[in-house]
Queue: 2 jobs
Job 1
Amino acid sequence: MADTKRIYAFGGGQTEGGKDMKFVLGGKGANLAEMANMGLPVPPGFTITCQTCMEYYNAEPPAFPEGLAEEISANVAVLEEKMGKKLGDDSDPLLVSVRSGAAFSMPGMMDTVLNLGLNEKSVQALIAKSGNERFAWDSYRRFIQMFSKVVLDADGDLFENAIVKMKQDRGVENDTELTADDMKELVADFKRLVAEHVPAEEFPQLAVDGAVVFPQDVSQQLHLAIEAVFRSWNNRRARDYRRMEKIDDDLGTAVNVQAMVFGNMGETSGTGVGFTRNAADGTREYYGDFLTNAQGEDVVAGIRKTRPISELPDVLPEAGKELYRVFEVLEQAYRDMCDIEFTIQEGKLWMLQTRIGKRTARAALKIAVDMVDEGLITREEAVMRINPAHLDQLMHPQFDTTATYDVLAKGLNASPGAAVGEVVFSADDAEAAAAEGRKVILLRWETNPDDLHGMVAAQGILTSHGGKTSHAAVIARGMGKPAVCGAEALKIDMKAKQATVSGKGVVLKEGDIISIDGTSGIVVLGEVALVQPDVSGDMDTILAWSDEFRTTGVRANADTPDDAALGRTFGAAGIGLCRTEHMFLGERKDIIQDFILGESAEVRQRALDKLLEVQTEDFLGIFSAMDGLPVTVRLLDPPLHEFLDSPRDLEVEIVRAECGGASAEQLAPRRKLLAQIDAMSEANPMLGLRGCRLGITYPELYALQVEAITRAACELKKQGKDPRPEIMVPLVSVKAELATLREEIETVIVRVSQECEVDIIIPVGTMIELPRAAVCADEIAEVADFFSFGTNDLTQTAFGFSRDDIESKFLPKYLERKVLPRNPFETIDDGVAKLVSMGCERGRSTNPKIKLGVCGEHGGDPESVHTFYGIGLDYVSCSPYRVPLARLAAAQAALAETAQGSDNR
Ligand code: PEP
Ligand code: MG
């Protein structure tokens, strides 16, 4: 026997677990136990722990741990006792389901086997006992179908095709119209398919005369099914999903073995999935789908047209009433919106699963705000419940309301947001197109877990089949991707990679541009203009509460008045990084080229004068948009040759001109330019003449920028406005760089403000984005009013990873081989965070008043915001669209610490 308990029973008057045990029993097992504890109708069963799954994997090769088979048999015996039936019995057989269930919900990613325990003898017993021959044969054919696919790895299409053919032969549309004899015939067909298609060498224990015989021994069925569920923890889609959701690979899945109840026993039976509130928009109403005379998988598979749960009381009044009661009990107990699976067997309701329901961001906000109003949860809990990454969903584009378009097709509004892209018909095509940088919409009849990589790659998902709880809908909502489901007018021809649109005479071909709106369910041929939504209503309420709880400031990274205004609308308390190099592009590139390459002082001065004029205009716009709030302007940072013509293009131009007969004399100026540009090129421009090194090398360039900043600020002050610029020097590594530049900067500020006759104080600080700067931050802080950690360059230089190349080069391998837990340019790495922490401590040690922020991409990453809160930064700065999620993440970090503090007390 194992030292730790491997199996926990539930239901039937003896339950050993509860809802807090999800890391042992998985979410499904823990919640089944909880529902049984609450007295809700749960068919009895037992749960094999997640740790047992890892024991299985830790064996070499993977195998059941010693003693597990005996423990399973003992628990089967207890279950048989509770049910008064025996597995494989030839008079009253017990049938069980075998389901996966990890600590974190991984919908549809792992495997399940239903109706286990049927064989040639027990099917006869089931007929006799139920008096329902069709039901018994239907259950048996379902069992063979699922077991063969999941356990024996047979191609699921073999069985589906056999059913389709049977329906065609009988001239019926639905499988419910097939008779008992038809089902019996399918059983025989399926067994033949198993013998023909499952390789005997892979299942020697099932082979007779070189062919696999569908197992008749029920304990063998059970053990094989449990092992298959263990194995499904590591199938490709489960691994992909875990990587996407950042779920640990070492958690393992639990296996739930549970007495079957049957939704396919006729019209008083049924099955469904539901939510205690509307999972799409959060409205307080029961939400979901059901089918009569069906088993669980039929609802999510989208094979038959489901009915909304609001119609259940009309169809099965008793069960409907009971279900609504259960909904209320669950919401009160879990104090959250729950998602459930249920089966009705001959009028009686059974609960098969519950968990905290997945929801769209919009629904999450509404439910949290409503539950505070209802007195069910506190405002702190409401803030803690919103996933900051999911706020991105609401920051997604929508169709421009002023755009005109013809609706090509309508489907269900399965996941909000709008997207535009080329149509592709397979997940692999979506992945390949996205790798080339193309935007695509994945169009499928219905998605299944094997499509996950394509869904990740696509901008949006469109299906011609399936409801709001179909795979595509659930997964898209979880990913925050727009999805339109069940657009039935689309008739897909997978082979031809095209879809005809009924009633429209349109054929959609691979590569055609379409637009989808997952908020309204609309599909449009061609590109519709998209706009960003605003952050009012429930989002505003949650963010206002967040602002009360957070102590970390949030600013925006913005380089234009429009972006500055957007950041302000989203709640930014200023600009943490205004990158001025973007102001030197377009037509201004020529001016700066004149400055860099101009041979006479006159030409260079003329270029500077022009730049001063346009830069002052830029700052007038930005400071006005952020009136009253700080704007950290970073002086020029990138290597200068980025502003010069491309030498490759220039060379091509020269060769072309030469071939066209241009003389050496005519070509001389171009050749000279090329030589000048070549002379400026560097082997490692990222480590070259950039950042403050430009300011040291070309003092007039920084002086010009400081003059523009000061002039703009003075001008606005004269107009009665309140501009608050801060000047930031990039890429400092030694104190002397900043000290030298600071002196020059202050000289310009004094000169210009005196000329303008305006009193102005402009703080001068630096970015900390090189390891030496972090280590010597105490020295640098003596001449800095503030530090802003540039964690993009700090990550680049701490690791020595090129930030521009890593993602397309070796990072994927590093992640796959777990050399790194995640992309360090997305979520701050522990080592880089230590440099930030050291920089803060050392900076404060010599300059206690120094202001500390971060402006790398990490400032908008929720997990990194937690790290920065822990380090004690004063603010984070991120792209305007990420400002709301940074506000929320900062509040959650502060609240989490308070909660931890009170736990420790
Ligand atoms: C950084 O390095 O983190 C930073 C914000 O600067 P940039 O991305 O412009 O190099
Ligand atoms: Mg940088």
Job 2
Amino acid sequence: MKPIQVGLLGIGTVGGGTFSVLQRNQDEIRRRAGRGIEISMVADLDTERARSVVGDKAKVVADAREVIGNPDIDVVVELIGGYGIAKALVLEAIAAGKHVVTANKALLAVHGTEIFKAAAEKGVMVSYEAAVAGGIPIIKALREGLTANRIQWVAGIINGTTNFILSEMRDKGLDFDVVLKEAQRLGYAEADPTFDIEGVDAAHKVTLMSSIAFGIPVQFDKAYVEGITKLAAADIKYAEQLGYRIKLLGITKRTAKGIELRVHPSLVPAKRLIANVEGAMNAVVVNGDAVGATLYYGKGAGSEPTASAVIADLVDIARLHEADPEHRVPPLAFQSSSLVAAGGDLPVLPMADVVTSYYLRIRVSDEAGVLAKITGLLANAGISIDAVLQREADEVGGEGSTQTDLIILTHDTREGDMDRALAEIQGLPTVLAPINRIRKEELSN
Ligand code: HSE
């Protein structure tokens, strides 16, 4: 059979990796796909650099629309990123009847509904394994391997930059700002790291996993997003003393009231495997009613790990592109006619209705009755305490200090109730600084 013809839009880190892995493993890939997969066109504004990567093996152009307009191209791989030109080009490629492979989580998390609808109308595939957790085949696992299950929850370390920063903060006892600068110097963090450190990148990824897990449309606008910028070395140290690690988790969970969809730093018991995922590595735990907890671990970014996911999508397309569209795997795992409408039976819950447990760090005057007052306010709000740790004032504020940190772990409670209790506690004259609240996830069942 004639090799399937691929056009790459953008040949940076991932595009270069895709080109070289396809070259290196072409025989093996052909044996799996049943036909060859050839990158025959590449569009990149930097045509010189593109030529230095592909040599004479592919035609290089500066204008992506030349690729889309070429009738010989079967699949367009979008590796430009962002919501701007990438969105226009993906929609144009679909309109031209091309299958699309993309690593663009931001685009799909925000505009996925429009893009998947356009693809369904045109009978083409939009594949995005590389958009979530890089080389880990988590989309395949959720969409196909776990298809028998009613998924209960998904929790993942799905941003390598922030996991690297948190690992360094823990190893070296340093604060966030210091580690971020070091990570930028070493090239682990982007010059503008906002999407990573504010949790937006992780929220894009968990939004996609939530849709596939529960059969709901992509709803990034409903995700709760909190990054790691407010974490202090002290929180990491106290968490450790209580048997926990702090990780930036993307969490999506089925509850009786609806779907939780959230990204925030979380205390995770140190004994859980996912708590021990260090550096820039990614890991995702999926809990299904039949299978129980399953864990997926690997590189979430980088040239060849991400290329591994892009090429897996190309192989799927090579195998299925002549199949009746109804016999292909639906892009969001559920048949599009069976997705629960946004706000329908499975609404994404507002954060006030999320139920979780908490770590609280409260800077107080070290005087009689302070702890009793705070625990009284928590009790009035129906919040049950799991553990309390009080540091010696000297240890916290230096010799002769009259301030100390109270660390309180709570049992599960509604976030709205916790918000109200914290507002009251914050108003106490003996509470001397903004309270640090970090959610805690046991991830036990
Ligand atoms: N910037 C992401 C990370 C990789 O740090 O994991 C691409 O999604």
